[in-house]
Amino acid sequence: MSPSTPDIQTPIDCAIIGAGPAGMAAAVHAVRRGLSTILYEASEPGGQALAANWIEDYPGFPEGLSGPDLMTRFFAQVEAHQTTIHRQRVQTIEQHEKVFCITTASIMTTARTVILATGLVPKQLGVPGESALIGRRIFAYADPRSIPHANKRVLIVGSGDAAFDQALNYARQAARVSIAVRGTTPHCNAALARRVREANIDVIRNCQIQAISEIDNNLAMACQRDEMEMLIEADLMIACIGKISDLSCLPHDLRRGETPGLFRAGDCQRGRSRHIAIAVGDGTTAAIAASDYLRRLSRANEGGRG
């Protein structure tokens, strides 16, 4: 089904791309400021926060709570504000006559402002054999609820908070969980490192994966460790080695510099400062900026008519 032809004359006020913490916060504040708003999400609302084992630093929850529980609360608030939600992936965003055209596989919508809250996409290891196994036995930052792993051997690759948090998540059901770290010292916070030790999760240091293959139905990682070669076998690999901004729906001319009416929020424009509280602040700020922009635009139009 081809996208319907947009009506440039009657665009909505604000289209928000991505329903992670930044996008959902933006939606709540945009609606509260009286903007006609559409929120797009290609998969499940919550973004990478859905994979968080336990969140202790988000204000208002002194005992902490899981990522899925917090995101369920976020989404309930979005729904309470009667936000229009399209559960579709945005393929392109183009600008025509100062109006943005947002296209999915089946619909096209026009909006006077866009808040891009698309988050990040994972990096790949880039070693031989990896690409053929991605989505089958190799996954990146994968929500444990989406991958059957009970009684299986899981190798987590990475040294940061996400890798150690994922290891704790998978250890609940997996037969064995190991973490492969390139350097000598993990880069995760001390609390996560302590929990990993307490859970008896093996941390393999100085481990650099050189190639990946399948041997006798095992996932086999050829590694170099302390100038020696070794083979690690597992059933699944979860790669947590970093991410880059997901700007795939933006044409190159909209990626450069500032475009009036286009705002970014959350991880897609934050670099390494990736916290839910920061994303919420970004989403709130973007919604306010979109509202202020539309107000200025309306005043300018009224002045032109006068």
Oligomeric description of these chains:
single chain
Shape: elongated
Our measurement of the CA-to-CA distance between the termini, rounded to an integer number of angstroms, reads 44 Å
Low-confidence stretches: none
Q: Using the CA coordinates, give the radius of gyration.
A: 22 Å
Helix content: 25-40%
Strand tally is 17
Helix count, DSSP H or I runs of 4 or more residues? 6
Q: Which secondary-structure class do the elements indicate?
A: alpha/beta
| SSE succession | EHEHEEEEEEEHEHEEEEEEHEH
Protein described:
The protein is α/β, with parallel strands linked by helices. It has helices at 21-32, 67-80, 161-170, 190-198, 252-255, 276-305, and strands at residues 12-17, 37-40, 84-86, 92-96, 99-103, 108-116, 120-122, 138-140, 153-157, 176-180, 202-204, 207-215, 218-225, 228-234, 236-239, 243-245, 262-264. It is 26% helix and 28% strand. Helix 3 packs parallel to helix 4.
Essential attributes:
306 residues, alpha/beta, 7-stranded mixed beta sheet, 5-stranded parallel beta sheet
Task: Please specify the SSE layout and strand pairing.
Layout: E1 12-17, H1 21-32, E2 37-40, H2 67-80, E3 84-86, E4 92-96, E5 99-103, E6 108-116, E7 120-122, E8 138-140, E9 153-157, H3 161-170, E10 176-180, H4 190-198, E11 202-204, E12 207-215, E13 218-225, E14 228-234, E15 236-239, E16 243-245, H5 252-255, E17 262-264, H6 276-305
Parallel strand pairs: 1-2, 1-6, 2-3, 6-17, 8-15, 9-10, 9-15, 10-11
Antiparallel strand pairs: 4-5, 5-6, 7-16, 12-13, 13-14
